[in-house]
Amino acid sequence: MLGIIGVIRNRVSRLPLGLQSHINRVEEIAARLSDSNGVDPDLGRLGALCHDVARAMPDSELLSRASDMNMDICTIERDIPMLLHGPVGSEIVRIEDGVEDESILNAVYWHTTGSDTLDEIGKIVFLADKLDPQKNKKYPYQKYLYELAGSNLDLAMFEFLRREVDSLIQRGNQVHPRMMESRDYFSQLV
Ligand SMILES: [Fe+2]
Ligand SMILES: [Fe+2]
Fold first, then answer.
1. Taking the model in full, what pTM does it have?
2. Looking at the predicted structure, is the pLDDT value of residue 2 above 80?
3. Which among 39, 98, 131, 156 counts the fewest CB atoms within 10 Å?
């Protein structure tokens, strides 16, 4: 585990500084959430370190990488290629860095939209990303979300997804179909 964490830290050190800072904050939050949910904090750290490795990639490269990786690219991902940074990042750390843990790969893949396939680590990485204090203007309910995430990951997922889908619709933005499905899935668990 420590070996692979070092490999990913090295990759992160080559990303733009602002993105590195975000990833480092998410890493600490993911470690704390792992602890309070009885999950190995090193797994939380690894998922967080991997989650945004493709976040700084230009749209054209995200599209070409996704197509080289034989991914199905849906309409909203053609319009907003940034939505592909999770799937592409997951494939990059698998192929180029040797990350094999399916739980980590799945967490990275779905950290933007959520998914009914997320396990505890996947939910922790998803939520830790949204709990970065620098996103407090975007998500002013972070304190409440953090409290929920410490004890009930499914409820925290639902509360975030419900608010986020509503907010995107209210602002006239497209919503990824997978995010709608995730919201509906977590609504049934709470
Ligand atoms: Fe991301
Ligand atoms: Fe992120």
1. 0.97
2. no
3. 98
